[in-house]
Amino acid sequence: MVSMTTTTDLPLAPAGTAGTACCAPLVRQAADPQTARDLARTFKALADPTRVQLLSIVASHDGGEACVCDLTEPVGLSQPTVSHHLKILVDAGVLTREQRGRWAYYSLIPGALTQLATTLTETTASS
C-alpha cells in the first residue's frame, strides 16, 4: 500500500519580524545572581510543609511571636526538630529569634514576605 503525504505552505512572517519573540517577556529584567540565590534560599526554606505551618502559626500567634515550647504540639514534632525547622526559617530571613531564659521566641520579620512578593513581581522598564 502506498501512503500519501500532503504538504501545505504556511504564510511567511511580515518583513522585519525575523528573530523577534511572539510575546513580550513578563519580566523586563532577570534577577541578578545574588538575588536569585537569596530567593532560592527562601523558597527552599518554604518548600517544607512543616515550615510553612510553623510560619503560619508564628504569624497568627498573639503578639505576633511564639515560644518554641508553643510550637511543638501543633505540628506534632519534638522540640529539637521544631527548633531545626525554625533555624532554617531564621537563616532564610523570614523569622527572627530572641532568647529569653531557657526558651527561644520567634517572630515574623516585618515586611519579609512582602519583600519576597515584591522581588518576584517587580518589573523594570526596558531601556
Features:
127 residues; alpha+beta; three-stranded antiparallel β-sheet; 5 helices; 42% helix; disordered C terminus
Helix and strand succession?
HHEHHEEH
Molecular shape: elongated
Structural class: alpha+beta
Give the distance, in angstroms, between the N- and C-terminal Cα atoms.
60 Å
* Average pLDDT rating: 82
Strand order of the largest sheet: 1-3-2
Q: Detail the poorly predicted runs.
A: 123-127
Helix percentage = 40-55%
Biggest β-sheet, characterized? 3 strands, antiparallel
Radius of gyration: 25 Å
How many beta-strand elements? Answer: 3
List the total number of helices: 5
Strand content: 5-15%
What would a concise description of this structure say?
With 127 residues, the chain is an alpha+beta fold. It has helices at residues 33-46, 49-60, 72-75, 79-91, 112-121; strands spanning 65-67, 95-100, 103-108.
Characterization of the model:
With 127 residues, the protein is of the alpha+beta class. It contains five helices and three strands; from the N terminus they run ααβααββα. A three-stranded antiparallel beta sheet has the order 1-3-2, with helices on one face. Helix 2 crosses helix 4. The radius of gyration is 25 Å and the shape is elongated. The protein starts with 32 loop residues before the first helix and ends in a 6-residue tail after the last helix. The C terminus is likely disordered.
SSE order and pairing:
Blueprint: H1 33-46, H2 49-60, E1 65-67, H3 72-75, H4 79-91, E2 95-100, E3 103-108, H5 112-121
Antiparallel strand pairs: 1-3, 2-3
